[in-house]
Amino acid sequence: MSYTRIFRLPYCAMIVAISLASLAIAQDQSVEPESEGAQAEAMTAERLSALILSVDEDAQLNDTVWFFHVAELETAVIYDIAADRMRIIMPIGSTDGISSDELIRVMRANYDSALDARYAIANEQMWGVYIHPLSELSDDEFLTALGETVNIVISYGTSYSSGLFMFGGGDSAEIQQRELIEELKKKKT
What we know:
This protein is α+β, with helices and mostly antiparallel strands and about 190 residues long. It has a single domain, classed as Yope Regulator, Chain: A (2-Layer Sandwich), CATH 3.30.1460. The chain contains 5 helices and 8 strands. The strands form 2 sheets. A 6-stranded antiparallel beta sheet has the order 2-3-4-5-7-6. A two-stranded antiparallel ribbon has the order 1-8. Strand 2 and strand 3 form a beta hairpin. The longest helix is centred in the N-terminal third of the chain and has 19 residues. The radius of gyration is 18 Å and the shape is elongated. The N terminus is likely disordered.
């Protein structure tokens, strides 16, 4: 399978903004930048906290759950050291009235355009989520994960994309092309 590059400025801007936060962190003495080729240290609660606070200095920690905002979106990061898991979650909206066509479209996006972030349903709510082993998570991976999750929330109902790439072999690109053609036809008439 291959990846196709799709370029959507608002989504790219989000990834760039979060990447800039990672540069700011690299200058902070409490968080060492990752050097190329070096074995990355296991992610710690302290380093995760520093990353989150670099994104939103008003973030609030409640036990092992961080609550904060990214691109004005409510965000929670839940971590469990013992289980070695980390989860980013962002609410999208209620599942009341969601059609089977919409559910199928979301599943297609999970296959090819959401990449590592995913759409999920829990407690009658649609969510943007990203799940990863905590200890293996690098600073850059965490910040990219935030960007991808923001992007699938923002693009829900339109491109259903996490950002710049689309996994080949799926049908999201074809669906997007058909929708664009139909939109252009409507504008023409």
